[in-house]
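I have a small job for you when you get a moment. Can you supply me with one protein entry, sequence and fold together? It will help me judge whether the discrete encoding reads sensibly. Write everything out right here, beneath this request:
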Amino acid sequence: MSVKGWCPGAWRPMMSGDGLIVRIRPRLARLTRDQTLGLCTLSQSHGNGIIDLTSRANLQMRGVREDQHEDLLKALYDLNLIDATAEDEARRNITVTPLWDQGDFTTRLHAAILQTLPDMPTLPAKMGIAIDTGAGPALSDTSADFRFERSDTGLILRADGAAKGKEINETDAPQALLDFANWFITTDGATAGRMAKHLKTTALPAAWQDTPPAASAARIQPGGNAYGTPFGSIDASALAALLQDSKATALRVTPWRVFLLENAHPCTPHGFITDPADPLLHTHACPGAPACAAATVDTRHLARKIAKPGLHISGCSKGCAHPRPAPTTLVGNNGAFDLVENGHPWDAPRQRGLTPAQILTPAS
């Protein structure tokens, strides 16, 4: 299994089968109306019109040509959607709960953390921060290494992989983050690459594990002003039409393939999911071939036909769409599918070489 050691950004995109992947990290998980419509226009003029909503609540433009990347960067900067430098972008790997109000604790903590980032040690590229300070933690399954969360009595900072965190207050939060980050580096955490992996071999100070997080909050589900995206894939023209028809003033992104519209009027959903029970919302499938050069199979056409909770269709054994165990995983291999049950995409399959026709035909 080959896994990239870094994530694509805007300044440092990643090449895929359909062109460059350019990732945008919305500040406070929010884009204004003008930013959203601008991004949709750029996706169609500089990319292939597809925007991915990622598991870290980022947005990815797909199909960008290399000769258009520089012009795209300027346009994204003019929309205030990217940082001024690649270094600033790499540091600002923050996932924020989408449920916040202007001036509340979450927004104040986010501002304080932004001020702290220049003082942070250099961390492995995939490491990130979760500001999960709504009524209860909702980002526990979202990739992050330093987790600001509510406890039953206040605020904690929890290292990913530890059951409990350190009780802190708003004033202490930036220094606590620096202390955790510096401890990670001085104890050779960079070799492990991620906090949870590091904690498997290195003991976290006991004083940083005194308070459990509060009970988890429910994830946002489609309905009302919340819209689901099949496989996290957004058609830019459909999103622009939804904003225009709904008269929404802003968009908020989540790690759950759902986005929220602020001040939206009821309107046609333009192909987005509005039923939380829709099986497409609970089926995982990467872009597959030909969008991804590593894939040898068309994943999403099949996924739409057999969508069900617990299904993962991966174009290759890397499992980018769902790098976790699933009840049923179909893994692309030389133009056919291998079947893995209750495992990861890279685990040993129970069956090999299945064609789409065999998968779609029930066993007699």
Summary: Residues 14-85+222-262 form a domain with the Sulfite Reductase Hemoprotein; domain 2 fold (CATH 3.90.480.10). Residues 122 and 185 are 8 Å apart (CA to CA).
